[in-house]
Amino acid sequence: MKENIRWDAQLKVGSEVIDNQHKVLFELIKDLNNAMHAGASVRIVDVLLGVLRDYAFQHFQTEEDYFANHADFTRHCLEHYALIKKLNVFILDFRNNRIQGVQKSSAFLDDWLFEHINRFDIPFFFHETVKVRLLHEHEPIDEFDADREKRRLHKRLPHNEVVDDDILAYVYNATKLKSGKAKIINMSPGGLMLSSASNHAIDDLLIVSCSIGKNFKMEEKVKVKAAHDQMYGVQFVAPAPETIEFFTKLYGAVHLNRSKID
Ligand SMILES: [Fe+2]
């Protein structure tokens, strides 16, 4: 078993930015392994897993900026999506005590990152289109550019597809007895952020129906908890188990909150 794998020079991809982020990911995994070996509570390990997932999500976005001109750009993005999804399933299994033994958890986390860097990142970073980008690495990569903004519109959803359509929902306001449409701007296991031309008030009860990805259809009763400038934060009232499961697995694999609203 590869226990407490650390970053070493063999994992260099040639980008200082990415190498540093990979080092941080290995550190986070090391902290997780140490916490599990020390018998830390489920709550602490769960928080550390959440930190790992959030950092990985940001890191994958950074990497994808380097691969924009690579012929296999989409394949690498899908692989990143699959990694986030695997981690989500691991987190769910961990929370529900379905993983037997600390060794198994450690092995999963080590392989999760190590395999990806070896099989995907290193070959991709040695590709001509990416090397050109590396020559300009001193330029701040967070600078605004239209292409980057466009790529942020991509929404990663299950079923191995990258979807960049808006997610539209039908909304029935059961308090005001009015129907309308809304765009889903963000989502989580607790609720949704909607953008809608219809007017809803705090505490209004809405029924939101929509399809997300190819296979998930949802119809949920929600309560308006925040309303500002035609943006509405709504909370699920009594979500179906399928809804909770879907959004829990999706969490971290979808990044809608930078979507443009038109
Ligand atoms: Fe990658």
How would you sum up this structure in a few lines?
By secondary structure, the protein is an alpha+beta fold.
What is the H/E string?
HHHHHHEEEEEEEEH
| Number of DSSP-assigned strands | 8
Distance between the termini: 51 Å
Bound molecules: fe (ii) ion
Q: CATH topology of the largest domain, anyone?
A: Four Helix Bundle (Hemerythrin (Met), subunit A)
Largest β sheet strand count, sense and barrel closure? 6 strands, antiparallel, barrel
What portion of the residues fall into strands of 2 or more residues?
15-25%
Query: Radius of gyration over alpha carbons?
Result: 20 Å
Helix-strand category? alpha+beta
The CATH superfamily of the largest domain is known as: Hemerythrin-like
Low-confidence stretches: 150-154, 158-162, 257-262
What does this structure look like?
- The chain has 262 residues and is an alpha+beta fold.
- It has two domains: 9-151, Up-down Bundle (Four Helix Bundle (Hemerythrin (Met), subunit A)); 168-250, Thrombin, subunit H (Beta Barrel).
- The protein is 45% helix and 21% strand.
- It is built from seven helices and eight strands, in the order ααααααββββββββα.
- It has helices spanning 16-37, 42-66, 73-95, 102-125, 128-135, 146-151, 241-250; strands spanning 155-157, 161-163, 168-173, 178-188, 191-195, 205-212, 216-228, 231-236.
- Helix 1 runs antiparallel to helix 2 (42-66).
- The longest helix has 25 residues, at 42-66.
- It is globular, with a radius of gyration of 20 Å.
- The chain starts with 15 loop residues before the first helix and ends in a 12-residue tail after the last helix.
- The model is unreliable at 150-154, 158-162 and 257-262 (pLDDT under 50).
- It binds fe (ii) ion (FE2).
- Fe (ii) ion binds at residues 63, 76, 80, 116, 120-121.
- The site of fe (ii) ion has 6 residues, from helix 3 and helix 4.
